[in-house]
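Form 12-C: Joint structure prediction
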Amino acid sequence: MKAGVFDSGIGGLTVVKSLLENNIFEEIIYYGDTARVPYGVKDKNTIIRYSLEALEFFKNFDIDILIIACNSVSAYALAEIRANTSIPVVGVIESGVKALENKVKNKDSNILVIGTKATINSRKYEDALVHLSYKNITSIQTGLFVPIVEEGIFDGEILHSTINHYFKDLKNIDAVILGCTHFPLIEDTISKYLKNAVTIHSGDAIVEFLKSEYSCHTKFNNTTIKFFASENPQGLKQVAKSWLKELI
Amino acid sequence: MKAGVFDSGIGGLTVVKSLLENNIFEEIIYYGDTARVPYGVKDKNTIIRYSLEALEFFKNFDIDILIIACNSVSAYALAEIRANTSIPVVGVIESGVKALENKVKNKDSNILVIGTKATINSRKYEDALVHLSYKNITSIQTGLFVPIVEEGIFDGEILHSTINHYFKDLKNIDAVILGCTHFPLIEDTISKYLKNAVTIHSGDAIVEFLKSEYSCHTKFNNTTIKFFASENPQGLKQVAKSWLKELI
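Section 2 - Result
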């Protein structure tokens, strides 16, 4: 089985990490729109337009399933992508919500959703959680986490003061949805600040989701992966080597 | 006289502020490529391609001069823009260097240049300063300053820890070139950390440069300004109102 993985840039590599650790696919074609990253600060219409252009890119490959490893795209462009292809398209929001539902049974739990401006403004996580009867949901746009991670900062004073800036008024968070594929890289620091709240990670969530909803299984000994980018593919490959290490 | 002002997004508004304070032009057409901002993390070829598309936009207006209010574009695409138009095109780097030359006479002064990845990697400031016989130049990519300013943070713990992260090893800086049009918004905090080093501000520098090299003068009672953006022009106008206040 051959999967396409689409992200606005490098963040989707955290989803690729989960896919590789589970050897779900025989081959992965990764495409990052690095020339126009970040999507999280952009408008709905722009995100849809860029996502449909990415879909055209994937039509050059004979993929069996397309994974949208970007929360901003999953929030705004999933319906439009699906309307323009016959293959299954899986986003990180529906899988993240499903993962939360599996892990957090008490509907009175305090759920925190963090993400880019686009993801949070879409209210996609919030609406899905309300639909599942969760009552206490807080959403925060944590716009600085992406550039901090891209700067290679995963801990230390800058990250701590930024986390404190966003989270200082929060109390007793039981679970946090990392609604951006950059955030797993600072998961430990976030989780520690939130006194070890349950964390929902887009990559792990999508693996669970693919297994339960698409009958994907860990069955390949090895996954071949090819990286493409709209600019500087070498830069993308370097980050992939640093984040994915012996997996590629 | 009618000027076009081009920036990748909102940063160029600090240049507009200087232009408006000096009433140099009768009319300004501002265009921000907000759909693809930021340019500072992008490749040379991408910056050139996007800049030539912006030039096409300005061809719809009968402008007399084009001001590139973006350091990353000035660093990489100035020659290509000039090759594709017959009107004068002025960038912020040549004017910034000229402003420094006017303010800092001692060639042994410690000069700090800060900017985006694109601007610093281009070495455009450094090469020009070396050509002018300045001997002690330090360049630093301060990638987090743009998102911090865009988050509306102009002071406080996050900015202080970020400034400290970038500047902690610097000693006795005499002058700092704010090589990004976002940075004037955090000029006071930077200057204070650097013990009141002389600061070079792209907007003020370009006003001086237009006066000395292009015979522009403060002669209009009022400047009409029109804002255009590749996405969310309302958002751009809101930022313009907040930054430029009674000037517009």
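Section 3 - Comments
Chain B has two domains: 2-91+204-247, 94-201. The longest strand of chain B covers residues 2-7.
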